[in-house]
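User: Can you predict the 3D structure for this chain?
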Amino acid sequence: MKNKWAIILGCSTGHGAAITKQLASEGYGIIGFHLDRGAIKKDAIKLEEEISSLNGSRVKFWNENAADKEVILSKMDDINNLVKDGMVKLLIHSIAFGSTTNFFEPIPVRQRQMDMTQHVMAHCLIYWTQALLDKSLLKKGSRILGLTSEGSYKAIEGYGPVGVAKASMEAVIRQIGWELGSRGITANTIQAGITPTRALTKISKDWEEWIEKTKLRNPMKRLTLPEDVAGLVSLLMSDKADFVNCSTIFCDGGEHRSL
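Assistant: Here is the predicted structure, written as structure tokens:
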């Protein structure tokens, strides 16, 4: 493995943690961002130690708000020093943080909630890409990925702001891929199925019912696992995926095709 690095925004749990482990096991250097307190913070520290043992200590986690533009810009010199003469092979957005509510009832969503969810779950990826380009850290063969969901095109109870942000994420990714494709830098979204992660429990109080219904409607009769998504990310890192761009790739066992 040449000097290649992956930046995972939202690295401590769920999809982000699985992707981090997968790529570290393949020799990638890992730069991770998470925003955790308490027990979850301890889990992130343990994960960083595990990653260090997998890839020869080529890992750095920051427990800071990766959606804050000042944080993004302040970390560019540090990231540049880590990568040195290598490249950022992957920038992936796996941040699961937004307002889970309806637009109108029982309490109308506030503009602050909508704006925050849009920025954190979609728009901040623009500023990450800009900053990495300014440092020439994204090069031919680099991948930019975002995680989306059925909520980007389906109305779901309590998912309004996040659903809008997921649709925005897909639009952001398409535009990034369209503008940077001529440089050999590709951008795609991955649509995972319902996955048993900490984020799922925050979306709805009925999350356990969602799980049971999903098992019934999924053609493969099981939930999507973070490791499924990590496997797809690994495949997309191959040079054989150089022409996959501006696309949404489904990783859900066919779940989106079933009622």
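Residues 111-134 form the longest helix (24 residues). The beta strands are 4-9, 29-34, 59-63, 87-93, 143-148, 186-192, 247-251.
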